[in-house]
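Need tokens for this chain, all 287 residues.
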Amino acid sequence: MIKSHFLDLDFGELDLEYDSTRRALWFYMKGEPVPCFTVSLLKELGKLFNGIKETNQTDRQVDYLIAASGMQGIYNLGGDLKLFRHCVETRDRETLRAYAYSCLNLGYDCTTMLEQDITTIALIEGNALGGGLEAALSCNVVIAEKNVRLGFPEILFNLFPGMGAYTYLRHRIHVSAIEKLLISGRNYTSNEFYEMGIVDVLADEGKGHAAVDDFIDHHSKQSNGRIAIHKAKLLSHPITLGELRSITNLWVDSALQLDDKSLRVMERLSRAQVRRTEKLVNAKRTR
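Here are the structure tokens for all 287 residues:
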């Protein structure tokens, strides 16, 4: 049962920090055992978002929600590829769709400011790939440190990012640029994404947190106008759960058509996620 105050909630995969001066809540994804969106992480994020909504209804304490990573060098590597492969091999459409819907529901919350005029901010200090980048783009503001790697590798195993990427990118860049980006499968730098208009604020390396604080300090002085502008954008170019779910249903259908070759590529990427994580954890332990 959700408690009345978000700071009273117990989490295993999230760390929280609350800045009472800015009324800003930071959540850090721990990324263990792998920095991807596991089912348990999705459940904890849903629990957190509901806790914030409940608390703000009676005692507004959150004006800004910041999504960050607790793992140095990685923001989030995206979907749970091990789960994806299992669902495809066992033809488990419902589990795959339920997972995808959980992701897009959280993204929709971030895009619509949790229906409480809470400005959502993604702070990317490390690599953000696939669904990790997708999640960041669902936020109202994307702040990234220079030279981190960003991209959608799904085309490498004959799929596409199906939990909001196309919709969120459509609010930032031209459709032709979106298709080029998704089809390339390459990793870009945050510097390139900033030039393309996908990243809102480009911070110096190691200065991401300061950039968020600086953004909030400026935003809060104009919050009424800036929030209204964001709402106007959503009215002009609506993002609906219906659209997101239709695209996700297409993604599920496409995933279930993957052949053995594509699944082997997915497996290699999944193993690479684990190796990358273990390398970073071991490096951290030796410091």
